[in-house]
Fold:
Amino acid sequence: MNRRQRSNNEVLASACGTADTTASVVRWSALKFVVFASLVLPATVVSAAEHPNVVVLLADDLGWKDIGCYDGPVKTPTLDSLAANGVRFTDFYSGAAVCSPSRATTLTGRQHLRCGVYSWIADWEQNSQLLDREVTLAEVLKSNGYQTVHLGKWHLGMPTSQKPNKLTPADHGFDYWFGMANGAHPSHKNPTNFLRNGKPVGRIEGYSCQIVVDEAISWLDEEHNSDKPFFLNVWFHEPHAPIAAPDKMVSAYGQLRDPAAVYSGTIDNTDQAIARLLAKLHEVDAPEDTLIIYSSDNGSYRADRVGHLRGTKGSNYEGGIRVPGIFHWPGHIVGGIVENEPAGLVDLLPTVCGLLEIDKPSGVFLDGSDLTSLLLGRKGKFTRHQPLFWHLPASGPSMALRDGKYSLVAHRGYEFPKDKEAMAALKKQIEAILRKAGTYDDEIAGGGFDKQMFEGFKNKDADRIRGQFIKLNMFNESWIPSIKAGVHRRFELFDLARDPSQTTDISQQQPEVFERLKRQMLTINESVIADAPDWHLIKSGSQPLTEMSIEKTTKVHRLDSTRRSPFDAFIYVNRIPEKPEEGESAEDLAGRIFGRLANQEGRILVKLPPGMNRQAYQGFKFALESGIESHAGRCFACHHLPGLQQSTSKPPIPSLRNRRITKTQLRAVLANETHRGTKLDTTDINRLHALMQTFNDVPDSEFRNLILKTTVLDTSGDFE
Structure:
C-alpha cells in the first residue's frame, strides 16, 4: 500500500471530519469487476496538498447512442457503472466532427484552428500538427508533479521521412508513450504499427483496446512512482474502421459478417478492457484518488448510432459532434447525476485544473470553461464565458455554435477546389469491382455504400481505390488562404429543446436571437482565424515545424512581435488590434479599439501588466480620442500603432518608444505649433506621461513576466 492508499474507514473518517454540512452526498456502489465497500462521501474539491490520479478514456468514432447508459445497443456495464456513480452529460460535445482537430481541442482547451489543426492530419502529405507553442493538459499536470503517459492513437502529428521535424507526444508533455500516428494497422486485430517512445514494437497478438490496457497495466507495475500522482491519457482505436473484434462478442449482436455487429463488438471489447484497467487502478490507489473522464473524439460514421440527431461524423450538425460525456470521482464529484447543461471536451483542461485546484496555463486564452461547479452539484454557480463553438472548414455546415437551447450553424460561402468528377469516377470504379466479384451486397451489409467508404472494403482492389478517393477528399493546406479570407453566407438557427433533430430553421421567427448568436459566432471565428497558422507558407525541410523563434526566445504563447515594453504586453494580453485592416484609416482603427475596450470594460476583463497602472490605461484611451474638442488626444492619428511613429510624413514623425521625457518637457512639446489643436489640462498631461513610461522596452528575459503577472483592472463604470 502506497502513501495515497487508505482503508475505506479511514477515507470515511477523513471525509466526515472535513465535510461541509451543506455539501451534496455522493453514493458509489460496487462495480461488477471490483468489489468496493459502499461509502457515503461528501462532494468536495481535492485538497491542494495532494492531487488525485487523472485518467482520460477516449473512444474513436463512437456515437452518442452507442453505449448502454445512453440507451445504445451495446452492453457496456463498466461504462454504465462509471456513469451511474458519477455525472453523465446528456448534451456533451466533441472538440470537432473529425479526429485530429477534436484531439487538439481536448488536450489544450482551445479551438483546434488556433492549435494548428485544420482537419484530420496526413503526416506524409501535410505540415499540419499540434503546434509546439500550445500548452497541453499533460504539460500542466507534469508541472504539478504528475507522471504523464499517453497510450493508443495520437493523430496530432508524427515524424515521417518526408516530414522528419514533426513532434511526438514526448514533445507535448508525456514522459512515456505507446501508440501510433493514426489508426491500428491492418485492423484492431493483431496490429503491426505500435510505437513505444518512438521505437517500433512490431506485430502484437490481440485486439488494440486490450493491447493498450495491457501497456497501461505494465506501466503501473513497472514504471509508476508511488510517490507521485499520474495522468493516463488512454485513446482507444475502437470503433474506428477498419474494425475487428472477437467472434464471441460479435455474435452477441448479429452475424459475424455484419458490419454493425462487428462495430458493436469492438465497443463491447473496449468496455471489457476498461474493466481490467479500473481493476488495476483500484489495486494501485483507492477509487476516491482517481478522477476518470470518458468520451469520444467525434460522432459515429454510422447513422444508426447517433439516435435522432442530424448528421454523422464529419458534420457540424448535432450527430457529428454530440458524444457521451462521463465524469467519475467518488467522494468528490456528485454521483448519480444526469446533467443537461451543454458541455464538451473543450472544457476538459480548465475543468481538470478547477477540480484539482491548480493554475490554468498563464497567458493562454481558453475557449473552454471550468465545469467544476456542475460536477460538485452547484449548477447555479456555473457560467460559460463564451458559447461552445466549432469551425471545421471542410465540413458541411462548416461552423456551429451552441448557446443554451439554441444551435446556430453556418455554411461556407466559398468552395474548395476538389476534383469532384474524379472522386465520383473512383466511387463508380469501386462499385464495379465489387459487383463483378459478386460481393457488393455483402460488403455494404448493414449500411450504405457511402458509409462503407468510411469503414473500408474487404476487397483489396476496391480498398486500394478507396485510398485514392480519400486522398482526393483530403484537406489541402493550399486552401488555408481561402479559409482565412472566406465568408459564410447561409445560417440556420435551431431550438434543440423543441427540435433536437434540427429539422426546422427558426431564424426568421427568432430574429433577435439569430442576430445575437450570429454576431457571437463571427466574433469568435475572427479570433480563431487570427490565431490559425499558415502551414502552406512552410517549405518542406526548410525549418523545424515548431514555434517561431520569437516565441522560443520569450517563451510567450503566439507572440509575433519583437517589441518588449509593458505597453506591448498590454496589447498582447488584451488582444488589442495594432494594425489597420485594408482600407482602414488610423482614426478608424482607433475607433475599433475603443469598441473593444468598451466590451472588455463591461465584462471586467481589462488586464494590466506590471509597469502599467490605471492612469497609464486612461492615457491610452485619451491618446485614441479623435476630433477637435477639448481633451481630444488624437495621438495615434499621427503616431501610428504599433511602431508609434509615422515614417511616411515629411519630415517623418519620430517614434514615442523608449523616449525618456519629463512631464515638463512633455507639456512644452504639446504646446508647440504641431499640437496646436489639442487643449490639455494637468490631468491629461499626467495620463499621457504615465502612458509614455509604458513604451520603454525591458530585456527579453523579463518580458515573459509582464505577460504572466498581469492583473485585472476593476473598470466598473470607468469607460469615458
User: Anything to note?
Assistant: The chain has three domains: 8-385, 420-475, 549-712.
